[in-house]
Each structure stands twice: as C-alpha cells, then as structure tokens.
Design goal:
single chain; 232 residues; alpha+beta; two-stranded antiparallel ribbon; 6 strands; 36% helix; 16% strand
C-alpha cells in the first residue's frame, strides 16, 4: 500500500523546548523518549482514525476487518523521529489501498488500475439476496450458493454482462411477470472502478491538531522534569 508523508512544523516556543530538552538529556536519551512518545501516539491515532474514518458512511463498515487492521508505530526517517499509521500487514492489506486511493478512473494519481477479472470472464458482485444484514457476501461467491444459479445475459453492451438468478424466482414464459420479479444473487460485470475514500489521509489530517497539542504538552513536561532533576 502506498504511503503519504506529512511534516509537522513546531512553533518557536516548541522549538525552544526541543533544543533545551536535548541539552538537558544524556546522549541518545531524548531520542529514545521521543520514539516512545511517538509510539504511544501512533497507536492512539490509529484507534482514532479507525473509529472516526474507517467506519460509518465513508467506508460502510461491515465486518470491521479494515478498521481493526489500522495500526500505528514509531520509526526514524533519516535519523528524524516519525510515526507510521495505516494498514501495514494482514488480509486487509489486499484491499486497503484501493479503498484509500480509488482507481485511476476517479483518481488519476492512484496506483490502482480498473479492477478486472484475472481468470474468470466477469466479476461477480453480490446483490441483496446474497448479502448478510451488514452487507457481507454470505456465500463467498456464486460457487458457494447451495443451489445452481441461472445465468441470464443482458442485451446492453455496457459494463454489466448479465446476472445470476435464483431459478425458482424466474417467471415462466407467458405468465405476465417480468424479470424484475426474479431474485438476482450476483451481478456480473466486465470491470469495476472504485472512488477514493481517503479514510487514512483525511483521518490523519483531522487527528493532527490533537497530536500536536499532545506533543507540545509532552515537551513542556519533559523539560520541566529535567530542570528539576538538574536542580536536585
């Protein structure tokens, strides 16, 4: 999954505290403490983003797997303390990136192209009869349905090529019913494009003021503690 870099600019007062904190610390001590602080804040930020941006209307939370996969940790980038928040590993890594950036049709700078089938002739998109109340495919695909679905092709030459229907719901010829009364379990399409959700970028931007306030407070407390230690 691609990543974005956000730089934090400290105020003049915070920079003074930063310089003093380094002077009052033993070699390597301040850097170690900063990384510890960043590590704690990265975990807090990951939880905040998961609760506020990786669920609800933005992503339409279903199983919650993507939100639970968002983690944070500290690291150094060119000897500068930093943090990383995102989906860094696990099954959700397969789709976390495309949900963030979307596909190139909606976001030209996205690293993800239009989604097309790799081996099958079409992609199967579950419809209401195949979905659980929270919107998850209850069968894991057409092959998981406990009865044989009937394929009905569409006449249009668009992206949708047809649908897989419950044969018991298909009206008989001459019955006066239309295909709209039939139960479609899966819509078959040639390709799918996804709009970017920006749940990580927007979530991180919204959390930044809270983090910078915590950083300023931590620097003041750190310097105050070191001043007292020097006097004693």
């Amino acid at each position: 999954m691609s990543s974005s870099i956000v730089e934090i600019k400290l105020t003049k007062d915070s920079l003074k505290f930063l310089d003093e904190a380094q002077r009052l610390s033993k070699k390597g001590e301040f850097e170690e403490n900063v990384l510890g602080f960043m590590d704690r804040q990265a975990s807090i930020g990951a939880d905040w983003i998961a609760d506020n941006y990786a669920s609800g209307q933005r992503l339409g939370r279903r199983t919650g797997a993507l939100a639970r996969s968002i983690v944070g940790r500290s690291l150094t980038v060119g000897s500068v303390p930093a943090m990383r928040i995102g989906v860094l590993r696990g099954p959700a890594l397969r789709y976390a990136g495309v949900q963030e950036y979307g596909t190139r049709r909606y976001n030209p700078s996205s690293p993800y192209d239009t989604i097309r089938p790799k081996s099958a002739k079409a992609l199967a998109i579950p419809q209401e009869p195949a979905l659980t109340p929270v919107g998850v495919d209850r069968f894991g695909g057409p092959r998981g349905v406990p009865f044989k679905l009937t394929f009905i092709p569409f006449r249009s030459t668009g992206v949708a090529v047809g649908g897989l229907y419950d044969p018991r719901s298909i009206p008989q010829t001459g019955s006066g019913l239309t295909l709209q009364t039939a139960k479609m379990y899966y819509l078959l399409v040639k390709e799918v494009d996804i709009k970017p959700k920006w749940y990580l970028k927007d979530g991180f931007d919204a959390w930044m003021p809270q983090f910078t306030e915590e950083l300023a407070d931590w620097l003041r407390d750190y310097v105050t503690a070191r001043r007292r230690s020097r006097r004693n």
